[in-house]
Write a structure and sequence with these properties.
heterodimer, A: 363 residues, alpha+beta, Gyrase A, domain 2, Elongation Factor Tu (Ef-tu), domain 3, 2 domains, 6-stranded mixed sheet, 6-stranded antiparallel β-barrel, 8 helices, 19 strands, 20% helix, globular, B: 127 residues, OB fold (Dihydrolipoamide Acetyltransferase, E2P), 6-stranded antiparallel sheet, 3-stranded antiparallel sheet, 33% strand
Chain lengths: 363, 127
């Protein structure tokens, strides 16, 4: 099986990154700085991530708003130009095909960014339900760079004339970097202030190298990307959310519109929104030494199997083992004592809000 | 290039053994192993007094991403463990051959040391 590469592949090798296959791509897992220091660097300064493996596309034409109201449980009927929304593609069972960012560029032009691991499935789904009035164009000539951290704005401002201090959270703008048109969106997967920049493949290597040359910036691998998002409670599709979990079970109620009733899975999702679901995604934190990981069983205090961890790792910020998992709704209460099975031993833990560390995203 | 110490013995699974202490040997993991694992976040040490057989899992070292077993190259009894690793698992990354030692085992069969590699053979093994 051969892995795909991003346009920055040789740059990562030159920077001595440890590479590993992820979602069909050969990606940098960490650089010589190491996972713990990379994680802290993003929390203290600015980290740059190659996320070009993700899918990027433009949906254009008449009826774009109604189209996304059919494919997602959110509403795009009134989304202003320049506004990005986090949402999911739902299926007929109310499950989550993928989570993604949909940005309104204008009434008839939308920009979508979706997970690398679901690229083919998503594109097939988008096209299957595409009316004749719309076109779906993959941006295969674009790379995607994330710059995240409290120093991200001051760094990125050096590269563009567009005033970034005016760009709000979950907002997007067209801009120019090195005379090349880019989309800059103020959002990310780390909980820090930061941006994702969609930039032409023929400009990305120079852009990346210039960013890394800035003393405030370090390149960051996918391992730290995972520990950063886990501290924030952001789900990872294929682990914490998938085609068998609904947005209500995933505690993503906030993305479900009160007005949209046209989407796939509406009956199941609105029923759960009204009456509750039988299980819920929660945060789990070990209270004794150890690290609990994906797949670990979760037990109630009286020894009943109540759920399973879907993500788990060590949090450098909290110096503790944290994770996400689904538990029986009766145990989905903050501070409920539970136990997590790690290598045949039950380690005490508690149910917590999966937002273990407060995001610093600009509001 | 990973460091390999001349005065130690090695296993295929990247453990090292220090035989300077006579029939009490010290074991740990090599520079090559700690580099492959990355930053360690947690070490599960064996109980003192535990009886082990050659090849048994004697410790677990965990990086942010994964857990890895450490196997004892010798049979015997665990007589001492490196408690410093409890609060500072990173010692294995920064000093895998000295301050990052994992456990001391009192040998029950000195012949088992003949199955280990010397520094030259281990260097070959990891290249």
């Amino acid at each position: 099986m051969s892995l795909k590469q991003t346009f920055l592949h040789n740059t990562h090798i030159a920077q001595n990154a440890k590479m590993l296959g992820f979602a069909g791509y050969n990606m940098p897992i960490q650089y010589p700085l190491g996972v713990l220091k990379e994680h802290e660097w993003v929390r203290q300064s600015a980290g740059v991530f190659d996320v070009s493996h993700m899918g990027q596309a433009i949906v254009q034409g008449q009826g774009a708003r109604e189209y996304f109201n059919k494919l997602t449980p959110s509403t795009f009927l009134k989304t202003p130009a320049g506004k990005a929304k986090y949402t999911v593609l739902s299926n007929e069972q109310g499950g989550i095909i993928d989570d993604l960012i949909i940005t309104c560029l204008s009434d008839d032009k939308f920009f979508v960014v979706f997970n690398a691991g679901n690229k083919d499935t998503d594109i097939a789904w988008f096209k299957q339900h595409l009316p004749a009035s719309l076109t779906f164009t993959e941006l295969s000539d674009k790379s995607l760079i994330a710059l995240q951290g409290q120093k991200a704005e001051q760094v990125l401002q050096k590269f563009t004339d567009t005033d970034l201090s005016n760009l709000g959270y979950m907002c997007s703008t067209e801009a120019k970097i090195n005379n090349s048109p880019v989309y800059i969106s103020r959002l990310g997967y780390t909980g820090e202030d930061g941006f994702e920049i969609s930039i032409s493949n023929d400009k990305v290597i120079e852009f990346w190298q210039n960013l890394c040359a800035d003393e405030a910036v370090e390149p960051i691998g996918l391992a730290a990307r995972d520990s950063l998002r886990l501290e924030m409670g952001y789900p990872l599709h294929g682990h914490d959310i998938d085609a068998t979990t609904t947005p209500i079970e995933a505690d993503l109620n906030w993305i479900v519109s009160k007005t949209n009733n046209a989407y796939f899975g509406y009956d199941i999702i609105s029923n759960q929104k009204q009456n509750g679901a039988s299980k819920k995604r929660v945060g789990i934190k070990l209270t004794e030494r150890g690290i609990a990981r994906e797949g670990s069983n979760i037990y109630s205090q009286d020894g009943k199997l109540i759920g399973k961890l879907t993500s788990g790792s060590f949090s450098p910020t909290l110096q503790a083992s944290i994770g996400q998992g689904y538990v029986d709704i009766n145990y989905a209460v903050i501070n409920t004592p539970v136990a997590v099975e790690v290598r045949s031993k039950k380690i005490p833990a508690t149910v917590q809000d999966f937002t273990f560390v407060q995001p610093k995203t600009k509001r | 290039m990973s460091e390999v110490k001349d005065n130690l013995k090695y296993t295929q699974e990247h453990e090292w053994i220090n035989t300077d202490g006579g029939n009490i040997v010290t074991i740990g993991i090599t520079d090559h192993a700690q580099n492959a694992l990355g930053d360690l976040a947690f070490v599960e040490l064996p109980e003192i007094g535990k009886q082990v057989s050659k090849g048994d899992e004697v410790a677990v070292v965990e990086s942010v991403k994964t857990a890895s077993e450490v196997y004892t190259p010798v049979s015997g009894e665990v007589v001492e463990v490196n408690e410093a690793l409890t609060d500072n698992p990173g010692l294995i990354n920064t000093a895998p051959y000295d301050n990052g030692w994992i456990a001391k085992v009192k040998l029950s069969n000195a012949d088992e040391l003949n199955d280990t590699m010397d520094a030259a053979a281990y260097t070959q093994h990891i290249s």
